[in-house]
Amino acid sequence: MTVAEAGASNGVLQRVVDERAGEDGTNEVVLATSTGRIQADLTIGTEDKVQKRHKDSKALVTDLLSALVIEATGPLMFLESSAPSGPVLWLNHDIIARQLNLLHV
C-alpha cells in the first residue's frame, strides 16, 4: 500500500516492498523511501504484487476486509453522531473488532 498526500514542499514517501515473519512472531516490513515533491494524492492503493499473490483475482482478501470495516464503521459513526463522546472518535483496530464482535454474536 502506498499512502501520500500532494503538497507544495518536499516530502518523504515510504512504500512497503517486502514483508516477512520475524523470529519473535512479529512482522518485519521493509520500506523503500523516496524524497521529493509528491505530485498526486495516493491515499488508497494496493500494489500489484499483493494482488498477484491471491489465487483468484476476483476473490481478494482485501475485499472482505474492506466490507467488514465498512460494516463496523457505519453504526459507530451513526451512534457517535447522535451522542458524541468527544470532539473526535478515533476508530482503531480494537474499536472496529469490538463492533464486529457485537454485530456477529
Describe this protein's structure:
The protein has 105 residues and is an alpha+beta fold. The chain has 2 domains: 43 residues, no CATH class; 43 residues, no CATH class. 36% of the residues lie in helices and 22% in strands. The chain is built from 3 helices and 2 strands, in the order ββααα. Strands 1-2 form a two-stranded antiparallel sheet. β1 and β2 form a beta hairpin. α2 packs across α3. The longest helix has 22 residues.
Layout of SSEs?
Layout: E1 10-21, E2 27-37, H1 48-52, H2 61-82, H3 93-103
Helix pairs in contact: 2-3
**Domain tally:** 2
Query: Helix fraction?
Result: 25-40%
Q: Describe the strand arrangement of the main beta sheet, using strand numbers.
A: 1-2
Task: Count up the helices.
Answer: 3
DSSP strand count: 2
Biggest pleated-sheet summary: 2 strands, antiparallel
Give the ordered list of helices and strands. Answer: EEHHH
Radius of gyration, in Å, reads: 18 Å
| Distance between the first and last residues' Cα | 32 Å
- Anisotropy-based shape: extended
Q: TL;DR?
A:
With 105 residues, this protein is α+β, with helices and mostly antiparallel strands. The chain contains three helices and two strands, in the order E-E-H-H-H. A two-stranded antiparallel sheet has the order 1-2.
